[in-house]
Amino acid sequence: MVLHLLTVLFALLVTSHAARSRGPDVYTLCKRGFSYTWDDGPWTMHEEIVETFDTQGAKTSFYINGNNWSCIYDEENVQTLRTTFENGHQIASHTYLQWSHASLTELNDTQIDYEIKRLDEALIKILGIRPRFFRPPYGNFNQHIIDYIRGKHNKTIIMWSNDSGDATGGSARDSWNFYTRFAREEPDYTGLTLSHEVSDAGVEAMRNGTVQALVEAGVELLTTADCLGLEPYDYVGDYGERDETWNCDAEWTPSVSSR
Ligand SMILES: [Zn+2]
């Protein structure tokens, strides 16, 4: 009985320590700076976004898909993503096939594994990285999904503090007003904002100077990892070389390199 009680106490101590050390379930806000993020690429406007942030000496983060608006293995995407990575912007996971389902809450664990591992494998091949950061499509999740993705896949779940609305009917002017308001009224706000690299409205607002307005207001634009003080990747190695598996149409089974 005493032994049993000690075992339970020990288990509780270990559990509470683990709960503390692994951080919150879901991050929605930065701890310092401001993270201006882009979902649903890579697509045709990706490179322009990187150039704009580079020009302003700012950093951004992309929560990408494997095969949504385009296949991640297309040579243009491979080259563009390598530039993004080399220029110090963050690459994070937003599932392999976002379009094929309404949300993770409608998938079973095997299907969730597919969504995460197939993109992880692509990023290990293309960039030599496995991302720690994951944003669920549509921001839909439940406690099981949080526990499963953190426990099995070692991902940190990132949402957002403020949505620019560029994927839900907002205009370029709306996105412009959204970002420049932080610059004018709340330059010290540690925002973690949502835009979409496949949204004409979100990209048009950027062309009209949202990044410059924030930088000129003294807002420090950081990757999500830097604004949270966390590591962006749990594996960093060399770039791979293209072979027949660099293909979104092929049959796929997990390789040993993915988690
Ligand atoms: Zn999305």
Automatic annotation (TrEMBL):
Residue span, NodB homology domain: 32-222
Annotated signal sequence range: 1-18
Top-level taxonomy: Eukaryota, Fungi, Dikarya, Basidiomycota, Agaricomycotina
GO molecular function per UniProt: hydrolase activity, acting on carbon-nitrogen (but not peptide) bonds; metal ion binding
GO biological process: carbohydrate metabolic process; cell wall organization
Keywords associated with the record: Carbohydrate metabolism, Cell membrane, Cell wall biogenesis/degradation, Glycoprotein, GPI-anchor, Hydrolase, Lipoprotein, Membrane, Metal-binding, Signal
Organism for this UniProt entry: Serendipita vermifera MAFF 305830
Name listed for the protein in its UniProt record: Carbohydrate esterase family 4 protein
One GO cellular component term noted in the UniProt record for this chain: side of membrane
